[in-house]
Amino acid sequence: MIKVYTPYKLWDVFYDWFGTTDQFERCNSIDEVCGQDIKIACVPLFFDNELSVPVEKFDLFLISDIEFNHVRPINEWLEQLEITNYLVAVGGLEQYTVSGNMIYRPWWTFNLVNQNTDQYQNNTLPEFDFDILLGAKKPHRNFVMARCQKSFLLQTSIVNYRQAFHAPEYNDKKIDSAVQKILANDRLLYPYVSPNCKPEWEVRENVDYQISDQVPWGIYYNTKYSTILETIYDKVFFFSEKPAKALYGKRVFVVFSCHNYLEQMKDLLGFKTFSGTIDESYDSVNDNVERFNMAFEQMEWLAKQDYHSIKEKTKDIVEYNYQRLFDLRQETADQMLKMVYNKIEEIKC
To answer: What is the dihedral of CA 240, 339, 44, 94, to 10 degrees?
Structure first.
C-alpha cells in the first residue's frame, strides 16, 4: 500500500487517479508520505495558487485539470515550479491528442456517470420535440435562442435559458451580428423558462448551477430529442457533462460546439452518432455561424419526422453509447493507473 499526499478538498483528485484500485491510500500528512520509499503527491493543476506544497520532497506529481487549459501554459507552470517528474490528466484538447506525460480524460463526463443512477423510462410518444436547455449565457446559446424565437420549436419544445447559471459573459462579433439579424427588432428572450416545462420535471425545486451533474430525467421523459450546447464552441474539443447527459439518457441529439466535435467524439472517445439518420455534415463546417445554422435546420427537420421511425433507426446506437460511457471510464482509469505504475518503476530504477 502506497500512501499518496492528497491535500485538496474541493474535488477528488485522488479518485481521479486511483478510483479503481485499493493499492493506494490518500493521506494529508506530508511527513507520513515522505517517510515512504515512493513519495507521490496528488494535486490539482495550478495548485500553487491555493496550496503550499514542498515540491522538492516528492518523487512524482499526479496533476488533474478538470477544465480546459492550453498545453503551453501547463508546461510553463511545471517548469516554473521545477516539477520534472509528473503526469497530467487534462480536461480538453486543442488538437486530436496529447502525449508523453499527459493523458486526456473527460472529467465532467465521468463525474456525471458517478453521480447518477439509470432512471430511463420508455415513453411511447413524448409530448414535446426537443429539450433545449441553454445553461449559462454565451454567444452560441444566444444564437440558438434567437433561432428558436423564429421557429416552431419554441412552442413544441422545452426551451430554458436561465440566469441561475453564472459564467463570464463575452462577445463574439460574428455570432452577435447573426443574432441581431435573426431577431431584427425583437429582443432576445433571456431569461426564459418554457411554459411547457412543469416544475415537477426539474431535477430539483431550486434550479442553480449545482444541478450540472444531474440528468434531467423528467424533461427527458417528456421530450423526444436533445440539444447539446457545449461549454466551449470554438476550436477546442471539451467533452463535458452536457453530452454525457444525453448519452446516459439514451438520447438522439444535435450538437452546437466546435468544428469536428462529432468526429472527435467518435475518433477519440469511441462513441457513435446519427449520420445514418441525421445530416451531420454541419460538423465539418469551420465557420461557426454556418455550422450552427445547419445544425438548427437538422433540429427542425428531425422534429417533423415520424418519432417511432427515428427511434427504431437509432435504438442500437443509443444503447451502444450508454454502455460506451462505462467502458470509456474503465479504459481511461486503467490507462491512467498503468502510467502511474510505469512512473513508479522508473523511480525505483
So the answer is: -40
C-alpha cell recorded at residue 163: 440566469
Distance CA 129, CA 225 (A): 6
Sign of the dihedral through C-alpha 80, 86, 90, 94: positive
pLDDT digits (tens, 9 = 90+) for 292-343: 999 999 999 999 999 999 999 999 999 999 999 999 999 999 999 999 999 9
Question: Distance between CA 284 and CA 263 in Å, rounded?
Answer: 8
The closest alpha carbon to 194, from 148, 257, 249, belongs to: 148
Under 8 Å CB-to-CB from 222, ≥6 apart: which residues?
123, 126, 127, 128, 158, 198, 201
Cα distances (Å, whole numbers) of residue 66 to 3, 148, 151, 208, 299: 23, 32, 36, 20, 30
Name the 3-class secondary structure at 44: strand
- β 158-161/192-193 pair status: antiparallel
Instruction: Give dist(CA 183, CA 78) in Å, integer.
Output: 47
**The three cell numbers locating residue 106:** 473527460
Q: What are phi and psi of 93, to 5 degrees?
A: -130, 140
Length of the chain measured in residues: 349
User: Based on the number of CB atoms within 10 Å of its own CB, is 117 exposed (0-12), middle (13-18) or buried (19 or more)?
Assistant: exposed
Phi and psi at residue 256, to the nearest 5° = -120, 100
Q: Three-state DSSP class for 269?
A: helix
Query: pLDDT for 199-210, tens place per residue?
Result: 999 998 888 778
Q: What is the pTM of this model?
A: 0.94
